[in-house]
Amino acid sequence: MDRVSKLASDRAVVIFSVSSCCMCHTVKRLFCDLGVNPAIYELDHDPRGKDIERVLARMIGRNPPAPVVFIGGRLVGPTDQVMSLHLGGKLVPLLKEAGAIWL
Amino acid sequence: MLFMIWLNWIKIFSSIWITMINRPFKKTDITKCMQVLMCADQTLNIFPSQPMHAVDPATQIGQALANGSTSKGPVNQAMGAPPTQRKNSDHASPALANQDNDQRPTVKREGSRKATTSSSEQEAPKTPDPKTLRRLAQNREAARKSRIRKKAYIQQLETSRIRLSQLEQELQMARTQGSILGGGLFFNDQGLPTAGGALTAEAAMFDMEYVRWLEEHHKLMFQLRAALEEHLPENQLQLLVESALSHHEMLINMKGHIARSDVFHLTTGTWMSPAERCFLWIGGYRPGELIKIVLRHIKPLTEQQIVAICNLQQSVQESEDALNHSLDAVHRSLSETITSDVLTSSAVDMASFMSRMSVAMSKLSSLEAFVRQADNLRLQTLHRLHQILTVRQSARCFLAITEYFHRLRALSSLWVSRPRQEGV
């Protein structure tokens, strides 16, 4: 659990994803288009991926939880949360606040 | 069996002749003979399909006895008056005429004539005579036949009922299997699986619910338009706008429900009209289209609103691009999975084929996630527009959106019913 939060606050934007998941690809693509350079942890390539997945599932309340996005150490959530924030125009200010983009 | 019949006959005859011969003739003897005959009646009725045939010998005996009795003395009368008896015998005689024996009608008429001309010394109506006996026997026969028919009919009903419940069970099982396979099986009218082109059960249900949703939505829009034109107070308008928003949400929930079982029904857009299908994007309209409609038709907008809507447009575009990009990646990987090795190798390796197919299946199942995200995008766009615009503007926005799709549907129906050119 604390490993997850440590990893999450390591960088401005942290994405826990699964390499074969298509929604993870969508979220990654979205952030790259916004000019963000997120830290991506592929849970299926990570040896401790299973534990992290379990912790994330408990945090999100959904299994499989991927993709899960942390911005500035704070949990943002799965894909639809990210999309809603972005449409609400709140994603970009959040990213600026976390220092992920500067413009 | 036949031997038993003969035995019975011999018994009957012997009992009759003994009673007739041994003592002076009496009416009670006739009664006894009739009773014996009635018992004989029962034994004779072992062939229910030919009751008249079995009864005939009894009636013949009855006629003979009647003749014999009239020649010897007063005769028993049937119950009821002689005219009714004659009527009965008249009724009986056409029936009798169907029989093989020709002697009987003449014998019977003779007997009936003699019966009517006999003296008034009549027994109590309860004593049966041949015609009544025959009538009774025929009634018995008819009742027995109808009982047997009724039994057979009920049997048939029961078996059909069991068969019907079995068929319903099979249909239910097949339907659930079809839903588990994600709409792989299609059902025709008889509930049997058939090759594609037909709708799955869930898809047909979704189509029906969609039609109902459209009707409800039109009613809502009618109310909204009326409220706008009558310049109702803001809070009432707000209520109507919010109900329209939640009605849109209801449609998205419906789509989410069918996406679980039959995602291709949504992505191929068979539930939409043809003109709407031109603009099909991941199981529905493009969210960006809504914003374009708003920007074009909802005027006047404040500076702040325009800026907000433009920002919304940009973020919607970015989200759409991200979804499109991953969808392309899914398509690419799906075709790679399907075509690897299979096209070049001549031998069909079942194991590798099945493993490839299972990988492809998991990739196909990701389409459901795309449809869900696209629908979420549509819903969020509507919510955000409602936040940016004022109440009156939101009302006009919803009306404009509905009118847009309504015109697309009208265009589709005109297109479908357009006159085709003959020849060439």
Would you mind describing this structure in some detail?
The complex is a heterodimer of chains A (103) and B (424). Chain A has five helices and four strands. Chain A is of the alpha+beta class. A four-stranded mixed β-sheet of chain A has the order 2-1-3-4, sandwiched between helices. Chain B is mostly helical. Chain B has helices spanning 2-22, 27-44, 51-72, 82-97, 103-117, 130-180, 201-229, 234-261, 263-267, 274-278, 287-297, 303-339, 350-388, 391-416; strands at 186-187, 193-194. Chain B has a two-stranded antiparallel ribbon. In chain B, a hairpin with a 5-residue loop joins β1 (186-187) and β2 (193-194). The two termini of chain B are 82 Å apart. The chains are: A alpha+beta (103), B mainly alpha (424). At the A-B interface, α2 and α4 of A face α12 and α13 of B.
Topology summary:
The complex is a heterodimer of chains A (103) and B (424).
Chain A (H helix, E strand, L loop, with lengths): L1 H7 L4 E5 L4 H12 L5 E4 L6 H12 L7 E4 L2 E4 L1 H9 L3 H8 L5
Parallel strand pairs in A: 1-2
Antiparallel strand pairs in A: 1-3, 3-4
Chain B lengths: L1 H21 L4 H18 L6 H22 L9 H16 L5 H15 L12 H51 L5 E2 L5 E2 L6 H29 L4 H28 L1 H5 L6 H5 L8 H11 L5 H37 L10 H39 L2 H26 L8
Antiparallel strand pairs in B: 1-2
Helix pairs in contact in B: 1-2, 2-3, 3-5, 3-6, 4-5, 4-6, 7-8, 7-14, 8-13, 8-14, 11-12, 11-13, 11-14, 12-13
A few lines on this structure:
The complex is a heterodimer of chains A (103) and B (424). Helices cover 47% and strands 17% of the residues of chain A.
